[in-house]
């Protein structure tokens, strides 16, 4: 396993982050395709054994059960001081007023709920799960600063939003002497490259670590075009992200993979990691080979010609994934 600094911080993270949205009780929340605790724990154990020290979840994943599963597994399989544990806040956790969002009240309540579910005194990275237009960003950033000063989080991060919004958040933190955002968790893969226009250059200039979600486009880049899975059939959010005319990109991935004698996942992940702004793609694993492919991708260096072949069929599209 290779390790790098997370953005401009002194924190060392593995170049692969295990995305833990895949682990949660299927009967809780909106993800009927997730693996329950008995099925999910072996993947977390395998990741630890492989040297992965970076794990990402969220309070809203499977109604909190993802945090519960991840917390119990890491307590058994890992040394807490060696693990970089990330979670998120914003999604609605209960009906009624203040059941979601990024108000001071919501943040202060949800960090304690997340810590209880994770079974830890602190998280290493506490991220806002999208922008909250109903709350002043000053209120949100100050509350996050207070979470850090209370010792409940070591760093704070953000996720998919417009570059102007993130620039504003960075400016608010700097102007007031509050804890600065260390990371951006955004949507970036061969089927969605709009982040190359503004967000990735902003992060590179500001020294913000980039940890892309869905680097394999919900698995679409790893299989023949049009192949259905349990997730593609039930993942309502995923259905909003991609277009029906991206066959040529998927076929280019297959061609490079065949020529190299590697899996398509390795090619698609190697392409994401190739971008100089990217710190560590967030990879989900629900089959044993998923982790193996992710780790192997770190050793795959694409040529400029191969990258051009992969990028050639892409056409501009409307911004998606901010909801």
TrEMBL record:
InterPro entries: AKR, AKR_Detox_Biosynth, NAD(P)_OxRdtase_dom_sf, NADP_OxRdtase_dom
Pfam families: Aldo_ket_red
Record-level Gene Ontology MF annotations: aryl-alcohol dehydrogenase (NADP+) activity
Catalytic class of the enzyme: oxidoreductase
One GO term describing the cellular component: cytosol
Keyword Hydrolase: no
Domain annotation NADP-dependent oxidoreductase: ranges: 15-311
Protein name (database record): Aryl-alcohol dehydrogenase (NADP+)
Organism: Spinactinospora alkalitolerans
């Amino acid at each position: 396993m290779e390790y790098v600094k997370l953005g401009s911080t002194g924190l060392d993270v593995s170049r692969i982050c295990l995305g833990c949205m895949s682990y949660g009780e299927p009967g809780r929340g909106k993800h009927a395709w997730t693996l329950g605790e008995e099925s999910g724990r072996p993947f977390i154990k395998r990741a630890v054994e492989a040297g992965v020290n970076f794990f990402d979840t969220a309070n809203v994943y499977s109604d909190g059960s993802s945090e519960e599963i991840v917390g119990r597994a890491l307590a058994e399989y890992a040394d807490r001081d060696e693990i970089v544990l990330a979670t998120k806040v914003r999604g609605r956790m209960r009906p009624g007023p203040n059941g979601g969002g990024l108000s001071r009240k919501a943040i202060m309540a949800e960090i304690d709920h997340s810590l209880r579910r994770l079974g830890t005194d602190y998280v290493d990275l506490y991220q806002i799960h999208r922008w909250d237009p109903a709350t002043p960003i000053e209120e949100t950033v100050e509350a996050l600063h207070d979470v850090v000063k209370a010792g409940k989080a070591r760093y704070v991060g953000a996720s998919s939003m417009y570059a102007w919004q993130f620039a504003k958040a960075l400016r608010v933190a700097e102007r007031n002497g509050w804890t600065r955002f260390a990371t951006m968790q955004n949507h970036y893969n061969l089927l969605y490259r709009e982040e190359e226009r503004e967000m990735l250059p902003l992060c590179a200039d500001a020294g913000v670590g980039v940890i892309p979600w869905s680097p394999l486009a919900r698995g679409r880049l790893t299989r023949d075009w049009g192949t259905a899975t349990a997730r593609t059939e039930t993942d309502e959010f995923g259905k909003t992200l991609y277009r029906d005319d991206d066959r040529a990109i998927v076929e280019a991935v297959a061609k490079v993979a065949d020529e190299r004698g590697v899996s398509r996942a390795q090619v698609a992940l190697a392409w994401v990691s190739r971008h100089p702004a990217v710190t560590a793609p967030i990879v989900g694993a629900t089959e044993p080979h998923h982790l193996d492919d992710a780790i192997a991708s770190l050793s795959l260096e694409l040529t400029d010609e191969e990258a051009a072949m992969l990028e050639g069929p892409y056409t501009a599209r409307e911004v998606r994934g901010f909801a």
